[in-house]
Amino acid sequence: xxxxxxxxxxxxxxxxxxxxxxxxxxxxxxxxxxxxxxxxxxxxxxxxxxxxxxxxxxxxxxxxxxxxxxxxxxxxxxx
Length: 79
Fold this sequence. Notes:
Blueprint: H1 23-40, H2 48-60, H3 63-74
């Protein structure tokens, strides 16, 4: 089985957000969703459902962002 960075996609109430993607990125999301579905034994999720967990994963593993966020929070600034 291929090890992907994302696991099963949780069912969560979405917030509407409009975004244009390059066609090549959309094709990659479609393929990623198919591979993810096969790897988890579930139906392939809609490609749009991959965007949030991918962004969450990206932010959670960005050391530079985490360091800057700690400094930002330490200055009394909140999001």
